[in-house]
Amino acid sequence: MGKARLKALVTIRITALLLLQVSYALAQSSAPLLKQPVLLGKQTFPLESVLEQLEKKVGCNFSYNPELLPLKKEISLNGNEKTVAQVLQTALDRTGLECIEKGGVIIIRKSSRHKHLHKHTISGYLRDKESAESLIGANIFNTKTHSGTSSNNYGFYSITIPSDTASFLVSYVGYQPVLLELALSGDTAINISLEKNSLLKEVVVISERSEEIQESERMSVVNLPVAQLKAMPAFMGEADVLKAVQLMPGVHSGNEGNGGLYVRGGGPDQNLILMDGVPVYNATHLLGFFSIFNVDAINNVELIKGGFPARYGGRLSSVLDINMKEGNMKSFHGEGAVGILSSKLSLEGPLVKDKASFIISGRRTYLDLWMKPLILASSDGMISFGYYFYDLNTKLNYKLSDRDRLYFSSYFGSDAANVRFQLDSADYQLRVRSGLSWGNNVTALRWNRAISNRLFSNLSFTYSKYKLGVGTEVQESGLPVEDYEARDVRNVFNSGINDLTLKADLDFFPRDGHHVRWGGAAIHHTFNPGVYHYQAQEADTARGLEKVYAWEYNAYAEDDIRISNRFRVNTGLHFSGFRVQQRNYLSLQPRLTARYLLTEKLSLKASVASMTQFIHLLSTSGLGMPSDLWVPSTENIRPQQSHQAAAGIARTLGSKYEFSAEGYYKVMSGLIEYKEGASYLYLDKSWQDKVATGKGESYGAEFLLQKKQGKTTGWLGYTLSWAYRQFDELNNGRPFPYRYDRRHDISVAVVHRLKKNIELSSTWVYGTGNAITLPQASYRSMPNYPGAAPGQPIYYYADRNNFRMAPYHRLDLSASFHKEKKWGERTWTVGVYNAYNRKNPFFIDRISGPVGGKFIQFSLFPIIPSVSYSFKF
Amino acid sequence: MALIFRYITFFCLCLLFMACETELDLDLPAHQPRVALNSFFTADSVLSVNLSKSQHISAPDAFINIENAEVLIFEDEQEVGELSHTGQGIYSISTFKSEPGKSYRIKVAADGLPSVEAMDIIPVKKPEIISMTLDTSSFTFFEEEYKVHFRFKDEAGVANYYNLELLHVETLTNGRTKVNSVRIFTDEPDIASLTPSQGRGITFTDKEIEGQNVVFTVYIPRALIDSGEKIVVILKNISRAYYDYETTLYNQLITNNDPFKESSPVYTNVKDGFGIFAGYQADADTLRY
Fold this sequence. Notes:
The complex is a heterodimer.
Chain A: H1 3-27, E1 42-46, H2 47-58, E2 62-64, E3 74-78, H3 84-91, E4 97-102, E5 105-110, H4 112-115, E6 120-128, E7 139-142, E8 147-150, E9 156-161, E10 165-171, E11 175-176, E12 178-183, E13 188-189, E14 192-196, E15 221-224, H5 226-231, H6 241-245, E16 251-252, E17 262-263, E18 271-275, E19 278-279, E20 284-285, E21 290-291, E22 298-304, E23 318-324, E24 333-338, E25 342-352, E26 356-365, H7 367-378, E27 383-399, E28 404-424, E29 429-450, E30 455-477, E31 487-511, E32 514-535, E33 540-544, E34 548-562, E35 567-580, E36 583-597, E37 602-613, E38 615-618, E39 629-632, E40 640-653, E41 657-674, E42 691-707, E43 712-727, E44 736-737, E45 744-755, E46 758-767, E47 771-772, E48 777-779, E49 794-796, E50 803-804, E51 808-821, E52 824-833, E53 841-847, E54 854-859, E55 864-872
Helix pairs in contact in A: 2-3
Chain B: H1 2-16, E1 20-24, E2 35-42, E3 47-53, E4 55-56, E5 70-75, E6 78-87, E7 90-93, E8 103-109, E9 116-121, E10 129-135, E11 145-153, E12 161-171, E13 177-181, E14 202-205, E15 213-221, H2 222-226, E16 230-238, H3 240-255, E17 270-271, E18 274-286
Parallel strand pairs in B: 2-18
Antiparallel strand pairs in B: 2-3, 3-7, 5-6, 5-8, 6-7, 8-9, 9-17, 10-11, 11-15, 12-13, 12-14, 12-16, 16-18
């Protein structure tokens, strides 16, 4: 029975009983109600049943605030209770409540003794028992007040309660929960360690409750446990965080294999991808087929699609917050894998036990190692081609004191492709070398300090760099044509963006159910939109855009507060500014997320959020090419802005399933796109004239059913959505569907533990085809010049994105076989990508022929098997 | 550079993965043919237009000429004559010569097709190539070109649009001549909205050269110059419609073969039809070397 219903029932009963029991009461002894004898026996039942039985058997009338009473709390009577007072004393034990009798009514209220109790703060860090790794977002649940808090990005928690005793349930997905019973005499610092549910052990079913989906005030948030991420089928055997995120409702993948994120109708540049809090500008390798995040080095992944907390800003559509591991403080460990495409190795351990640790993770592909010899052999040594990418993550973690911790982390990653052509003859030599490379460098120095039991600070100094380079070198001698001289020509195109950031964040936990955050940051951007450098014997010249420098700054205040047991809000303001080329843009962005518990298992949630983005990505294609250029807002190009509202429900079904349904509506402005036909290679100081500015609108509904416990885990997601764009200078000003407007999107992910050492997993995705522009008619063009034959045919496009590609669907399967060895554990994983060999559309091209034009669909990946061997020790 | 970049990336993909091709039977909407009208006209010349039918995208790229149309020409809204068919869909009128600064409207009625009409003007100012010099002394873009410097003056106070075209007049072995368009390269930094040549000359506005005496440099293949054959340079002052047509056509030509680029529609000023009806004034000179 829900609290609301019970309250109504109690009110009616009080009224009815007051009238009906007048005669009955007169017939009873005139003893006070609390002293009335009653026998309920030795049994356990909810508090609300205890009150009902007292009403029935003794005719008690109760008055209480249902918000204060834990009506569902199980009460164990020992059978020794002989009077109403004794029964209530047992029932209200450790609740901070007391009862008094007044005017024939028993009033249950806060204990007068309890009111004078001191508040106590319990704080500390939540960590993995084995590695001392921070547990981010773990729940600390007060079993008495049915409220709680969660650990922050550094594992710190703080909870303040007005009680001398405390009972906390500490839980985290993939870990065994811990129940803490504490007698408090003052503020207490406790570092709590949780033990993992071992892969090779049966899953421990959590018997006690932790914070459930309907209780969290947050909405449009997805947390992906790393273990689940690793267990899912992966393209070429390479587990990928971005690919896993794409399986969530509201997130689209763009094209086949693309690692770009298109969240709720937004573009790929509208995602704030954070690696340990530092923005990453290009999060993919190999034209988007792999992400830069090595899953062996990841600690926690969280995606926010809407209802953005005030601490986040700078992008319109999503925040993907990825925290990397800190390094094992206890002992030396390693893990790695050998696959078809790449190999990786991670090593971690203490530098000084329980004081300092390190982790280093590396990954490299070796396509180039087997491609180069093959191509050289097939071209008689004339052509050489190679491609590879690598990642290197390092992190040092030093505990300065119980309250202070210092982190230094860095990431280097790059893709590189090169072609060499060599021609040698007696009188002529030619050497051509071309190369393409792009990559990120992310570095952060961070200082955490627990200033007090309730106040936590984080100070960061970070550097993020993305660069792209394309170059060609031609060396030629002994040219066979008369008068020509030997030549040596080089040309290089470079572009990129650098950020230097100083950031401070503070977390304050004033009391149970109240968490305040505030902070600010200053970012210095250096944009290098594109420089072309040409060198020859007599020439050395450069042209293109000069570097642009800009300052971005922000400040925020965020309040997460439980207003009542049913009502909880997270509200705040994010202020940001951008100064570039003597122009200053300012933005104030209100944020609000609210949760109302309709019943214990069902809640209603709603959010509104405004976001501003000061940087833009100039993209010439939908491929997420590294050639896409980051450019700042300028005097003529305004920042992007969005306003999003969302509402939904969250419900726990039984003890294992979670269900959420959300509807959203989002409007965007300040979006830019190249005008029709413009290209990055002609980028010059007039690039702003080559882009069109427009608006976007998207709306839809998302449904997610998740199972997080048991032998079989996974989720079923469905999204129904619409996304449009409108640019005055495109499509004759008419609105048109966004390229990745996807009406229906379904994803199913299942991980099943068949035996203790065998894990099976599969994913299936379905999505409406992408919207593309195809011509409907053709006609003759004007001849090139007077007297010339007519030129090429001109194609007539009625509307932009007027055609839908075939739907995309794909099934991936994998099986993992674990085995414990003397030295640790090894796992063989076999998988199949695109198991039923679906020819999904990648692009459609028109080919002219003598009998007419025809359209050809090109597909990328057929069925691809994979096998990988991984180990850890 | 674009080619290098594209080749490398797509070479990667091709080697890595086996792409599959599937011919699609697309359910594209039916297309009701319309008149495609094409004409660039100038002062003191015979006005002629080419008329053909548009066709469904699945048809072969061979267009059907319209040979039975009624084509009327109006000058400043006064009818001045009817164009007669001279063969292969070309209609012309020799009894009338168009003049700068006047507006011209053309109306076409053809059986089974919606009637169309278009209107444009001939720019008042005729451009003048003040000088033209060949520079063979310094390096060029790909080291296989010579520099050619043109000097001309932009008229102040008027929005001008230009098209620069180079024609190579080739003398064949039978003594006849053949005209070819020369692909032009330029890296002029001060010319806004510059569109590199696709064999249709280069088109630009006077936004950055308003009222100035301009020296404009282009690169011409050395082999052409060295052949000693005639190269004709044509500088046109074109109408806004001409400019829009050329720039959007250029955009479409460079995106046609790139499935990852957004398609680019081509400007038309033909109401209820397709094509272009646009005026220009031109000055021509022969390159001397």
